[in-house]
Design a protein that fits this description.
The protein is mainly α. Helix content is about 50%, strand content about 5%. Strands 6-5-9-8-7 form a five-stranded antiparallel β-sheet, with no helix packed on it. The protein has a two-stranded antiparallel ribbon with strand order 1-2. A two-stranded antiparallel sheet has the order 3-4. A hairpin with a 3-residue loop joins β3 and β4. It starts with a strand and ends with a helix.
Amino acid sequence: MTIWGWDSGGWRNRVTHKKKLFSLSLIRVSKITLPAANTLHLSEGLCGQHTASSFAMENPQEQNVASRTEFPPVKQKRFNNVKLFLAALSCLYFAKTLSGSYMKSTITQLERRFDVPSSLIGVLDGSFEIGNLLVIVFVSYFGAKFHRPRLMAAGSIVMAIGTFLIASPHFFMGRYNYESTLTFSSNLTTSTSQCSNMSNSTLTQGLGETSSDKPLPGCEEEAGSSMWIYILLGNLLRGIGETPTGPLGISYLDDYSSEENTSFYLGILYTVALIGPLFGYLLGSFCAKLFVDIGFVDLERVTITSKDARWVGAWWLGFLIAGAFSLLFSVPFWFFPKSLTKETQKEERGKTSEKLEFIIQDQSEPVGNKPVPKISTLDKGFFSALKALFSNSLYVLLLLSLVIQMNSFIGMLTFKPKFIEQQYGQSASRTNFIIGLINIPAVCLGLFLGGYVMKRFKLTIVQAAKMSIGCAVAGWLLTISYFGMGCDNSRVAGLTISYEGAPQISYEGSALHHDCNAHCFCPRTQWEPVCAGTGVTYVSPCLAGCKASTGIGRDTVFHNCSCISAFGNSSALLGQCSGSDGCGNTFIYFMVVTVFSAFAFSFGAVPGYMILLRCNEPELKSLAIGVYTLIGRTLAGIPAPIYFGALIDTTCLKWGTNRCGGRGACRIYNSDTFRHIFLGLQVSMRGVGMLVFYFILTTLMKRFPAKDHCPESKCGTEMMPDQGKDHKPDNGDLSATAPITDSDKESNV
């Protein structure tokens, strides 16, 4: 539609002085939204009563926007698509969940490589949340005022840098020297036993290197014990870089998608994002099979297998791959506009070809005379916005439920691989493979179906809450059943049984010495397990009383073992004995139940998240998500791995020894105590969290009492109305809002 006006040169249809804001020259205004009546409303009537020049003087901002958006950049027109943004955001979620899940899969590898306890590993894992905590509130509040896609692109680059930094210690630490009691000759044809009648017996450590009970000279420099600081800093950067993805990405998607499609899009987003953990755990499985120094050492001299408590896989390789993905998927976000065309408006435009295109504010890159918002002016309403959030009792209850549930979830997710390895005797590679191939698809299916059910049946907020708590109860009951699916402790002489075979728990190796090995003068710090024919594991050949050996490498066989001879055959094989056959069957049952449990919890996740999105005013949505994430990560993401790891450390029966003689990573745990602590924490916290969510449900039911009738058009997923507004909710309906007038349609652009 073209508006003509008069100036000194007569009637014209082009701008003669663009830079003069109040010029009386004729302008051509494009992309003006027409109301339903298909007429242009000026202040008093139709365009015959006002000239275009007076319209420009009364509305200088509209003139400025029109002139800026007359020729939008081609790239922005191509990227002005909600579904395309959903695809890009899903890829970015894939990258961040890939690196995060791979970090979880390497927990035991990092413990052994850096000789640190589980409590310190919890600190390293929680540093991601610390980095997120440093900037989450400011990004959530101030970031919504600026170019959200570009902030997300910059954050993805920071995340990639942090991931590369995590892998860097491998290239500075030197080769991995695991503790060992074996010594090889130059031609690898013989190995020697450690049982000696000399009180100053010599231990060997690493791949053919000798040491004593005293630290080696210069061990501090060679051990690389402080290199875990790079893991801390890298994970910190990962947390900072990941911050814009959640609050800005989800709010950006929710702002420009149709209300009924939001829950479905979230289901797709989290389903695609969970492909990241699928590949993350599979990548962790692959890397765990490879020896950490593959390509740099002779594998024939490596006497341990992937099931050994000292084995360290190529943990660094996966971080390099994950960092490359983060860097790659940051590229598309540089081309998205500051705002998109809302889906519902696109549909309306397609119905009538006579309508002109909408004016999209801030869509074009040239900013013209529009001032860029300053932080000094934006922070005036920050504290009032926070006050509005925490004045919402429903939102506060959601925060409380989040903290409790996230403590359980994060603790479980961090140490589940370790639990499976220790409880069921599985290798790190097989554990990661099973988690990635079985559990992750169940979670993907649950999230997808949860979003689909929300869209298909157009659940009200009360129905969504009922669905969420019902799924949580089902998953909680399945978690309780894990207590009956444990395996007995491995039979290790001097730790879980006595040398006579009676059950006996011994911490710190207090019962490792016995009359059968008294003449060997064995140090208790050794860990070189050997397996006797009776199925009993001995901590080292020396503690088994073995005096001779044959074979090389992993095929070494020890003979004349005084502690074994009382049971018949006096020989032992290098390596720890495998668990009982019944434990293998129990492990299968455990994994089957975890599939249903994971599906139940994830199926109710999307409805629960939709309550968060709809219980606040639209302008507070980004801040609400940011504070929600902030509180969860502060009170759950950071402390949960630490106290879970500290409690798990209390169940350790035998600690390893690092190169400097200090305490290293744990070699074997008390399986029964480990299971009771690990599962007990989850069950108790999830139970309390469900109790809090029950109060949320009752609050919603009181606020939105059930009615006999719910029109289809009133049961979507719109924003919950505010208490002080003139319009009131109908049946707890998420879509009950005030009628939208023609002028509202124009202003909503």
